Amino acid sequence: xxxxxxxxxxxxxxxxxxxxxxxxxxxxxxxxxxxxxxxxxxxxxxxxxxxxxxxxxxxxxxxxxxxxxxxxxxxxxxxxxxxxxxxxxxxxxxxxxxxxxxxxxxxxx
Length: 109
Hints:
mainly beta; four-stranded antiparallel sheet
């Protein structure tokens, strides 16, 4: 079983749900870190959702307030999210082009 550490960067997430991570085909992944940075001049509310292989979406974090120029660490204290093949992580903000997302993960093949 091979494991590879990776980072994915998505800029300017806004009011439409955006897939910031999708598990590559033939792999499983473990999300080991996720940071949301508010790049706007205003406080934003951001949400993180997980979408399964049947397109059902559920909130992991809902409407967290992030002050202007600040960031939110979605995982602390060793928490991890297991993301099987065909699952996705989505992020949404209440202001257009206001959040940058950095996701650290491990591919397991």
